[in-house]
Amino acid sequence: MHPPVPLLLPHKAESTVELCSYIVPKNTQVLINVWTMGRDPNIWENPTSFEPERFLNSNMDFKGQDFELIPFGAGRRICPGLPLAYRMLYLMLASLLHTFNWKLEDGLKPEDMDMEENFGLTLQKAIPLKAIPIKI
Ligand code: HEM
């Protein structure tokens, strides 16, 4: 739902190609809107609902083979940082969750958090998350 790079990086068609019955002329700049793909009800059931368990019994992967979910892109220009990024993300998040309990500021409930986004080359939370650690 919140891909860090919402339009991937700009690509350029090296030659004229036909894609899904659309003609893409040579030299066209092509942006891939993964932000919209992540919210497309034709692809995802309840797309805007946070249900990480939707992946539990699925073979779908984010490594560029399943085109519904390509936060790192796909093909030749896929993010070369993918192997580092996903190891570090799990390690950092798991370490933080393992070491602390967490609460939101001013008794804010998770379901009431403002999830608006600021668009740019990268996507950021409009209102930064303030999570307060409590040492276990
Ligand atoms: C969660 C973390 C990250 C995400 C979601 C991410 C996502 C992306 C995306 C979407 C692209 C464009 C792919 C395309 O256009 O098809 C990209 C390109 C790239 N990423 Fe990442 N990235 C992440 C972390 C990293 C890290 C840790 C590094 C380096 C250590 C890195 C280095 C690069 C480079 C050099 C490119 C350009 C590749 C090219 O154009 O050939 N990324 N990344």
TrEMBL record:
<dbReference type="GO" id="GO:0004497">
    <property type="term" value="F:monooxygenase activity"/>
</dbReference>
<keyword id="KW-0349">Heme</keyword>
<keyword id="KW-0408">Iron</keyword>
<dbReference type="GO" id="GO:0020037">
    <property type="term" value="F:heme binding"/>
</dbReference>
<dbReference type="InterPro" id="IPR002401">
    <property type="entry name" value="Cyt_P450_E_grp-I"/>
</dbReference>
<keyword id="KW-0560">Oxidoreductase</keyword>
<dbReference type="InterPro" id="IPR036396">
    <property type="entry name" value="Cyt_P450_sf"/>
</dbReference>
<dbReference type="GO" id="GO:0044550">
    <property type="term" value="P:secondary metabolite biosynthetic process"/>
</dbReference>
<dbReference type="GO" id="GO:0016705">
    <property type="term" value="F:oxidoreductase activity, acting on paired donors, with incorporation or reduction of molecular oxygen"/>
</dbReference>
<dbReference type="Pfam" id="PF00067">
    <property type="entry name" value="p450"/>
</dbReference>
<comment type="similarity">
    <text>Belongs to the cytochrome P450 family.</text>
</comment>
<dbReference type="InterPro" id="IPR001128">
    <property type="entry name" value="Cyt_P450"/>
</dbReference>
<dbReference type="GO" id="GO:0005506">
    <property type="term" value="F:iron ion binding"/>
</dbReference>
<protein>
    <submittedName>
        <fullName>Cytochrome p450</fullName>
    </submittedName>
</protein>
<feature type="binding site" description="axial binding residue">
    <location>
        <position position="79"/>
    </location>
    <ligand>
        <name>heme</name>
    </ligand>
</feature>
<keyword id="KW-0479">Metal-binding</keyword>
<dbReference type="InterPro" id="IPR017972">
    <property type="entry name" value="Cyt_P450_CS"/>
</dbReference>
<keyword id="KW-0503">Monooxygenase</keyword>
